[in-house]
Amino acid sequence: MRHLVEVCVEDGATLASVQERLGIPRGEVGLFVVNRQLLNEDAPVPDGSIVDLYPMFGGG
Amino acid sequence: MGRTAGTERGGVVRMAKGYVGKILQVDLTDQRVWSEEPGDAFYRTYLGGPGIGLYYLLKEVRPGADPLSPDNLLAFVAGTLAGTPGPAVCRYTVCARSPLTGTAGKSEAGGWWGPELKMAGWDAVVIRGRSSRPVYLWIDDARVEIRDASHLWGKTTGEVQELIRQELNSKDVRVAQIGPAGENLVRYANITNELAHFNGRNGMGAVMGSKKLRAIAVRGSKRVEVEDLPAIAATTRWVAQNLKDHPLAWGLHWDGTPAGVVGLNSAGALPTNNWSSGVFERAADIGGAALTSTILVDRKGCFSCPIRCKRVVEVKSDRFRVDPRYGGPEYETLVALGSNCGIGNLELLAKANETCNALGLDTISVGMTLSFAMDCFENGIIEERDTGGLKLTFGNEDVLLPAIEMVARRDGLGALLAEGSLRASLALGRGSERFLRHAKGQEVPMHDPRVKTGLALQYALSGYGADHWVAQHDPLYAQAGSPGLLGLAPLGILEPVPPLDLSWRKVRAFYYTQMLTMAYDMLGVCVFGAVARSILPLDKLVDLVNAATGWRTGLWEIMKAGERATNMFRVFNARQGFDRRDDVIPGLFYEPFKTGPLEGKGAMDPGEFARALDLYYRMAGWDATTGKPSDSKLAELGLGWVADLPA
User: Fold this and answer.
1) CB contact (8 A) between residue B481 and residue A26
2) Which residues contact B472 (CB under 8 A, 6 or more apart)?
3) Which of chain B's residues have a Cβ under 8 Å away from the Cβ of A16?
């Protein structure tokens, strides 16, 4: 299922804070893909980014 | 046969609880069965699953024993908690020397067979020798019979399950069995129960086939005795009630393991075309959401599990009619046979999954062996005259099903591929080794260590070849405040460790979760039921063990049991000639990704990995040069007796 949401955050905000702003609980997101690049949750989000969040996946 | 008492050393007798107290011993050469009652101290030391399996392998399988000869031993061992009504604790392990890796073999399955064995009054079945004709074992509570299986030989698993149930006049009989692939000694043949649960890896089905044992049918009429039944029931209710609020457990229920496909592809780390790429353009067509919205007809689970993560799919098209009795494809299957072979047709993959399940093939190893062959074909090492006219190219939808059949029946090129990719490459030569992705001869599962370094440690340090459930996966403990990290806090893993970290922090987290995961296998706990991958916390798990056994144990003793079994694998393998030089990962992982968002990135550093291994050996009490456990470590774990094993 794909949902598109626009979020405004302060300069230098991290992916973790974007997740928090969206109300997604800690640990639910396993992969943060920003402008098609895989980043860690503590990475800052550049202005105008497209952020894809994928569920935590640790072993099929 | 009534309840049994376990006898402790020193003559103290205690009632067996949780475990049953009896192990069924079988010699197929002499067609003889007998019972052993090893006592409470034995069960508390080795628990169940791989702990008990490795005990018998160490005692009875001599160095150099051919895995497919009567000299090998095949043990089916239920977990300590299996058969109790606890949540997601139903699993059993099959152990033997692996014909694929030459190491000790170990493969778990859920489903219903392990609990049924316990309810029949047995914790394990230990099988030796070889029958002169096809047979199956019929365990009806205390009554055990070796029956003729000549009429079952060559049939699919679905046919055999029906025939056995008809023959025994009972729909309640649980059947663990091999398919034609196991009969034909395909080195990665599996064992299935209920047609949809698998001891998938390490070729345990080939060992069963070599003994001419087609199936073990079980029916049990007794409840497994426990110390505190209401406490166990309360824990299962707690899981059922809290499942929807736990993102990982609920995700497993809703989309199952296929949920991982699309995210990994977006990140650029989905194994594609024999791992030459991390991006597959048709990933969305074979992912969890696609499966759920198209061919999913039911979600099923295992004995006493509220999570119900298993897929049941049905395809009604004439081209790929799929029988829902065979369950549905997991993440590993959709990737190994799908993107890894360039196949993006979900209905075809559902059919390929059904075919593997009906024939008794491990979907990971067959997918990886076929993708190896596809690379060889595209590079001129295998030609059409070798394949019987099949164009073994990536993405060719017409070849997948015939190729699987060829392997299971050892037809034509299938005879070579049935040996596994490593042996096939050794036979082919001509540079084909550059297309291999294996550790100790077992093909790697569908997780790229270049995005989670702990998987490299899993592949190299596993006691049974490349495997993805040696320890908990890095992302599960990478985020502060996440359920996975909070769940591991009782082990002292308190700070997040990034997926690409390979420092002492990662080695420590790997070591601790390796011991925990091995202990899960010994107890019968499913990794999809407990932390860090799922919902059951460690304090509740310890309570569950006590409520089942009455042992009044703690996490320390349970972790030590996991460490003990890990060392038993290491000792067994050292006796078979393995040492540190075998603890390697495919060279591919030292190269960067070649395509997609991770292009040019991800290459692991060989020096950094070697330092991590060095640290691991010293942390484990193993010699950093040979990789052998020290005498003092073995003594500390209560394994001093292995020094007296005959050479």
Assistant:
1) yes
2) A58, A59, B454, B484, B488, B509, B513, B516, B517, B527, B532, B533
3) 479
**Interchain CB contact of A48 with B (< 8 Å):** no
Give me the pLDDT at residue B15, please: 86
Q: Is the peptide bond before B532 cis (omega within 30 degrees of 0)?
A: yes
Q: What is the pLDDT of residue A3?
A: 81
Residue linked to tokens 């990995």: B609
Give the pLDDT of residue B6. 44
Residue of B nearest to A57 (CA): B260
Q: What is the mean pLDDT of residues A3-28?
A: 90
Reference B327, options B355, B306, B348; nearest CA is B355
CA distances from B570 to B22, B140, B578, B633 (A): 27, 36, 9, 12
Rounded Cα distance, B43 and B40, in Å: 5
Q: Which residues of chain B are modeled with pLDDT < 70?
A: 1-13
| Helix, strand, or coil (residue B27) | strand
Quote ipTM for the complex: 0.90
Q: What is the pLDDT of residue A44?
A: 94
Tens of pLDDT, residue by residue over B467-489, are 999 999 999 999 999 999 999 99
Of the candidates B547, B545, B564, the one whose C-alpha atom is nearest the C-alpha of residue B555 is B545
CA dist B26 and B43 (Å) reads: 20
Which of B180, B163, B175, B228 is closest to B17 using CA atoms? Answer: B228
What pLDDT is stored for residue B566 in this prediction? 98
Residue B115's pLDDT is 98
| Tokens (6 digits) for B514 | 């390796």
Of B248, B257, B476, the CB nearest to A60: B257
Q: Residue A25 is nearest to which of B247, B480, B533, comparing CB atoms?
A: B247
The pLDDT assigned to B1 comes to 35
- Chain A residue with CA closest to B598: the answer is A37
Question: Residues of B with CB below 8 A from A26's CB?
Answer: 479-483
Does B498 contact A at CB distance below 8 Å? Answer: yes
Flag whether residue B454 sits within 8 Å of chain A, measured between CB atoms: no
B600 at A interface, C-beta within 8 A = no
CA distance B636 to chain A (A): 32
Q: Judge whether A3 is closer than 8 Å to chain B, CB to CB.
A: no
Nearest-angstrom CA–CA distance, B224 and B228: 12
Cβ contacts (< 8 Å) between A54 and chain B: which residues?
262-264, 266-267
Strands (E), B449-516: none
Tell me whether residues A56 and B484 touch, CB distance under 8 A: yes
